[in-house]
TrEMBL record:
Protein known as: VanZ-like domain-containing protein
The keyword Membrane belongs to this UniProt entry's keyword annotation: yes
Region feature (Disordered): 137-160
Keyword rRNA-binding: no
Membrane-crossing segments per the record: 12-32, 38-56, 63-84, 96-113
Organism for this UniProt entry: Tortispora caseinolytica NRRL Y-17796
NCBIfam families per the UniProt record, alphabetical: vanZ_1
Keywords for this protein: Membrane, Transmembrane, Transmembrane helix
Length: 160
């Protein structure tokens, strides 16, 4: 028996993902022939991967793993094989690199932004405790986010 676990999802993003997926499926498996097919593959897989990454409300590592398997392996490569069963579409091995490139760029950017977002939350949680006075004077003029080296602008000095 396979254990059933519930994975928390962001419902608004899930609805956007489903709606976009339906639109892409209707356009992708329909009798349409587009002259800029490769660019469209890149853009569609970029958008779908971005939405999929943010659907799952899981750790950054899990989101990367789920997105890689689902969007890059199954979506980017598998969708081309599925197209061979459509009477309107043909398998095109030249589409696969564009699918994978769009998904990969999206995954890299989403994971980067997710890390940056988590670092900012961690920084705020560590530096905004209730025991600190409200008007704290910053002694260092160049504070950085931990682990990223991203400089932050110093807080305004209220003693001037």
């Amino acid at each position: 028996m396979i254990p059933v676990t519930s994975i928390p999802v962001r419902k608004g993003v899930l609805l956007m993902f489903i709606g976009t997926g339906i639109l892409v499926a209707l356009l992708g498996f329909g009798p349409f022939d587009v002259p800029f097919d490769k660019a469209l593959h890149f853009i569609v897989f970029f958008i779908m991967t971005t939405l999929f990454y943010w659907v799952l409300d899981v750790s950054r590592k899990r989101a990367i793993q789920f997105t890689f398997v689902s969007c890059i392996l199954l979506g980017g490569v598998g969708s081309e094989f599925v197209q061979s069963f459509s009477p309107y579409r043909n398998f095109d091995a030249h589409d696969i690199p564009y699918n994978v490139a769009g998904s990969s760029l999206s995954l890299v950017l989403s994971a980067w932004y997710h890390r940056r977002m988590l670092d900012r939350k961690r920084y705020q949680r560590l530096h905004n405790t209730s025991t600190e006075p409200i008007n704290t004077v910053i002694t260092s003029q160049t504070e950085e986010l931990p682990e990223t080296g991203i400089p932050l602008e110093p807080a305004p000095n209220s003693n001037n």
